[in-house]
Amino acid sequence: MMVIGREPASVRRAGTAQRLWIGLGAVAGLGAVAMAAVAAHVVPEGADPRVGTMLRSAIQMQGWHALALLACGLWAERGGRLANCAGLAFIAGTVLFCGAIYALALGGLHLAMLAPIGGTLLMLGWALLAASAVWPR
After folding, report:
1. Considering the domain 15-134, what is its CATH architecture?
2. Disulfide engineering: 111 pairs with which of 52, 53, 100, 121, CB 3.0-4.6 Å?
3. Dist CA 20 CA 48 (whole Å)
């Protein structure tokens, strides 16, 4: 039975990192859906087809890495520091990679090396998540 004003035991047991990654993963997923709506409804039909290709790529990457953040949240207690570092790499990589592509596709703003740096961070996140499975805690 739940007492008013008290969190359920399952919520109390969830660590801060676990809740952080799941929350940020949900926000990243929400952002991916919002950007898909922008791509479908705001970009003019006569726009350069490369804009649509860039947006689809960024939306797909953001969606996949939203799921990766959820995985970090579910794995955080067992994967320890490496899983948390993976979550940080996924967040930073998603912001830099997808942000740079969105800026270019929607605003024509070239942000030089941000997309490659972001992509490298995304790959690092996957490597760290894999390492957390081999060398937990």
Report:
1. Up-down Bundle (1.20)
2. 100
3. 38
Q: Where are the domains of the chain?
A: 15-134
8 pLDDT higher than 80: no
Tokens for 23?
Answer: 């929350």
DSSP assignment letter at 93:
H
Question: How many residues in the chain?
Answer: 137
Residue 134 corresponds to which tokens in the numbers above? 């081999």
pTM value?
0.87
> How many CA atoms lie within 13 Å of 47's alpha carbon, on the beta-carbon side?
17
The confidence score (pLDDT) of residue 5 equals 62
Q: Are 128 and 76 in contact (CB under 8 A)?
A: no
Contact 124, 57 (CB under 8 A): no
Distance CA(86)–CA(121), nearest Å, equals 9
Backbone phi, then psi, for 135, in 5-degree steps? -125, 70
Six-digit token string for 93: 């990589």
**Which residue type is seen at 5?**
G
